Fold:
Amino acid sequence: MEKHENELRIMRDRELIYAYKKILKDEYAKGCKIDRKRVIKRVIEESKPHFHVSFEHAYKVLSSVRNHGTGNFKCTLRQQMWNELMSLVNQEMQDKPYLNLSTALSRVLAFKRASRFYISPEYCYKYIYKFA
Structure:
């Protein structure tokens, strides 16, 4: 399981660096003075990354939320991510009533994107300026 989590983290971080370079290029093209905080804010809020969770973990969490109505989320960002993922899965199941949770989740993870990166500005800043 740990190896799979590392692969997901690597994929997320690649998407993060790609989004950073794209937005930084956009800032340069505008001729703006580069404000790191603004760039980081844009990277987090304007990017459309994949959901970087495994199917198994997502299925477990979403099943729990559907069956018990709540999840134990330590972080507000994670709670927001799970809420968005659940909303997309519910929409998929509403659009195609013959889909079960498993199939709908598979489709969302494969074809849909998150509305933003669900990471803190601090993590984003530290990671980008360490590796970019």
Summary: The chain is about 75% helix and 0% strand. The chain has two domains: 1-50+114-132, 51-112. Residues 1-50+114-132 form one domain.
